[in-house]
Amino acid sequence: MNYNKWSENVIVVDVDFVDRVAFDLTVNFERMLGRRIPQADMARWLECVALDGGLREGDHETSVVLIHDKDKQRLQNFAPSQYDEELAGKAFKSTLGEFIINTVPVEAITTKEDMVVDTMMFVARQEGVKRIMVVPDDRQPEIFEHIRRSLQQVDDDKRITVFAMQPLPGGNYRQEILGYSLMSALGIRGEELKGRG
Q1: Nearest CA to 19 among 111, 137, 107?
Q2: Contact present, 138 and 164 (Cβ < 8 Å)
Q3: Residues 6+ apart with CB under 8 A from 31
Q4: What does residue 63 show for φ and ψ, rounded to 5 degrees?
Q5: Strand blocks (E) in the chain
Q6: How many other C-beta atoms can be found within 10 angstroms of the C-beta atom of residue 195?
Q7: What separation in angstroms does the CA of 39 have from each of 66, 114, 121?
Q8: pLDDT by residue (tens digit) across 14-50?
Q9: What is the C-alpha separation between 160 and 116, in angstroms, rounded?
Q10: pLDDT value of residue 139
Q11: Which candidate, 68, 56, 65, places its Cα nearest to that of 15?
């Protein structure tokens, strides 16, 4: 990662994992709600992650790092989905400011888990960065211990939020449930779920 200037807000995502979770939610909610669930809206999902990470309306800038397997060219359950043509180097504006998207394939010299943690730590050391939102693969329980240990070295003035599908062991970070932002991006409304559980 050789960026000259990082945004104050950074989202680091194991996007292959998020794509799988979106698929699982789609299958489950189509069955439960008896309707077709559309592909997840990438821009809507990133906005929800930023909101869950503490960002509020305003003229902010958020850098997004989508880390993916080198052999994958696209997401299966999101729109837009093509890494090179539709996501890499693209940006969008919302009431939360501008989101600038970067896609990063994992090279053979590392693992995706290490790349997520290494990217998080690199970003945490950048002076202008104030808020970091991290979405690791929560099916790898050891990654949370790796994140917890790594974040012990980070200044308290950085607001770090880690997203997972289940509550995590405590650490020097805030926690949010990943499923809520994905449900919003998939167009699943809370009122649809009342009385179904």
Answers
A1: 137
A2: yes
A3: none
A4: -90, 135
A5: 9-14, 40-41, 60-69, 78-79, 91-94, 97-106, 131-135, 159-164, 174-177
A6: 6
A7: 17, 28, 31
A8: 999 999 999 999 999 999 999 999 999 999 999 999 9
A9: 14
A10: 86
A11: 68
Token pair of 180, please?
Answer: 């809520």
What is the sign, positive or negative, of the torsion defined by CA atoms of 132, 135, 192, 47?
Answer: positive
pLDDT at position 170 is: 76
* Single pTM value for the model: 0.94
pLDDT in tens, 47-96: 999 999 999 999 999 999 999 999 999 999 999 999 999 999 999 999 99
Which residues 6+ apart lie within 8 Å of 16 measured at CB? Answer: 68, 69, 72, 112, 137
Task: Determine how β-strand 60-69 pairs with β-strand 9-14.
Answer: parallel
- Look at residue 168 in the predicted model and tell me its pLDDT: 79
pLDDT higher than 80, residue 193: no
Residue 162 · residue 117 · CB < 8 Å = no
Do the strands 97-106 and 91-94 form a parallel or antiparallel pair, or are they unpaired?
antiparallel
Local structure of 131: helix, strand or coil: strand
What residues are paired with 176 via a beta bridge? 163
